[in-house]
Design a protein that fits this description.
Elements lengths: L56 E2 L23 E2 L46 H8 L3 E8 L2 E9 L5 E4 L1 H4 L7 E5 L5 E10 L4 E6 L21 E6 L7 E16 L9 E8 L11 E3 L5 E12 L5 E11 H12 L7 E2 L2 E7 L6 E9 L4 H4 L7 E5 L2 E2 L3 H9 L6 E8 L2 E8 L1 E2 L6
Antiparallel strand pairs: 1-16, 2-13, 3-4, 3-6, 4-5, 5-8, 6-7, 7-8, 9-10, 9-12, 10-11, 11-14, 12-13, 13-14, 15-22, 16-17, 17-18, 18-19, 18-20, 20-21
């Protein structure tokens, strides 16, 4: 999130890749929901394998990477970028002198997007047009204004229940801390305060609840499992505090392993199998929806590879990254249920394995195994080079992190690896980190 304190958290800092990292993990799904985000089946022409080698390692947390709020530098094999949080200060929809609590109109009948319901606005505009999408989705998008300590900023959120539950990025609301203030500006011009229901820093997701609100329009949540490269999408948010901004683009790639941290050193990096888009996304879009032309949310905008404006602010260069909605829905359900979000892990420490040319990433080499962990139980050994998960190529350690993040603890995946030049498969029952945040 863009801050206004005297210490500039955006200042670029040289990146020094670590030699090890913790075990590969992912968010767990809610009960009876056995799916977060999947790679397409092997051979799917839309499966976008990263084409650059990485100079990072992957273990219990995530691959090391540029900063969430800083102007990231490119890391070999990863995509350097910054997570989008606020415009400067409380921009966009101006806060009223006194925040209003609007109780809406539909009483106690709560509609939740996370349970498959929605009351998204129906329009008579031509179907499949950006105009129609905007009319349907804008009532479900809010601007989130945050102030805490010496910092303030704004981001975007998505209404997921008619009684005020809102899905957004963790980095949008984390500035508030324990004693800060969060306010929400709605599309109808009203404002209210909000409180944090739960956060999951590892997936950069959070749920907040607007105070005193009912009768809100819950967004229609789609699925990210069926996305195709090239399909048209629309991004909605509050870039640089300009609320209700609509931009158009396409899905540029799928399952892009993307990592970032906030640049302060206070948090672990976040890695996810991103939906890449060229729709214009800027600081302030974070937490907002990426939607298909039916108006269904298919991802949560979270990061960009940025250029800089004449004023030094980060700006879009057509490389935006969003958290797949299938992953986001499962995390949000657990947060609303008061559960600790567990993340799957293989129990290995890995490094990039390069080809004979010394620059082409062709796998993730196992450097260390957790005793009695999922990898060791499956027969993996130090020196094995993991090259695929369920048939989908793994050219870097970061790609392995992103791939596993789409599964739940207890699920089984097939790892393809080489040992002594021989190719083999191993079925791995993924372990759990128990919900740790480190």
């Amino acid at each position: 999130m863009f801050m206004t304190d005297s210490h500039d958290p955006f200042a670029d800092k040289p990146y020094t890749p670590p030699t090890t990292e913790p075990t590969v993990e992912v968010p767990a799904a809610a009960e009876d929901d056995g799916y977060t985000h999947r790679y397409p089946t092997a051979g799917d022409p839309y499966a976008a394998a990263p084409d650059e080698p990485a100079a990072t390692t992957a273990t219990t947390a995530v691959a090391a990477s540029p900063r969430r709020r800083g102007r990231g530098k490119k890391v070999a094999g990863a995509v350097a970028f910054l997570l989008l949080a606020g415009g400067v200060g409380f921009g966009g929809a101006a806060l009223q002198d006194e925040l209003q609590d609007d109780n809406g109109g539909n009483g106690g009948n709560v509609v939740s997007s996370l349970d498959g319901g929605n009351d998204a606005k129906q329009t008579s505009l031509p179907a499949g047009t950006v105009e129609q999408v905007a009319a349907k989705v804008l009532p479900s998008v809010v601007q989130i204004n945050v102030k805490g300590g010496q910092e303030s900023g704004s981001g975007t959120g998505i209404i997921v229940s008619s009684d005020g539950n809102i899905l957004t990025n963790n980095h949008v609301v984390s500035v508030a801390g324990d004693d800060g203030t969060i306010t929400v500006a709605f599309n109808d011009g009203t404002n209210t305060t909000a409180k944090i229901i739960g956060t999951d820093p590892k997936t950069d997701l959070a749920v907040i609840k607007a105070t005193g609100k009912t009768g809100l329009t819950a967004a229609s949540l789609g699925t990210s499992a069926d996305l195709k490269v090239g399909q048209e999408v629309v991004a909605i948010g509050s870039p640089f505090g300009l609320e209700s901004t609509v931009t158009q683009g396409i899905v540029s790639a799928l399952n892009r392993p993307v990592s970032s941290s906030d640049g302060t050193g206070a948090s672990q990096p976040t890695t996810f199998p991103a939906v890449q888009t060229d729709a214009a996304i800027n600081p302030g879009n974070s937490g907002g929806p990426l939607v298909d032309l039916d108006g269904n949310v298919i991802a949560i905008n979270s990061a960009i590879r940025s250029g800089t404006t004449t004023s030094g602010d980060a700006g879009s260069i057509g490389l935006g990254f969003a958290i797949p909605i299938d992953l986001a829905k499962n995390v949000a359900k657990q947060l609303l249920d008061g559960k600790t979000v567990e993340h799957a892990q293989i129990g290995v420490s890995v490094e990039n394995f390069l080809g004979e040319d010394g620059i082409t990433g062709i796998g993730a080499e196992v450097k260390e195994l957790t005793a009695d962990g999922a990898g060791e139980q499956a027969g993996l050994k130090v020196g094995d080079v993991i090259t695929a998960v369920n048939g989908n190529l793994i050219p870097t350690s970061e790609a392995l992190v992103a791939a596993v993040r789409g599964f739940n603890p207890g699920e089984k995946v097939t790892l393809t690896y080489t040992r002594g030049g021989q190719k083999s498969d191993a079925e791995v029952t993924l372990g759990s980190d128990g919900g740790t945040t480190e």
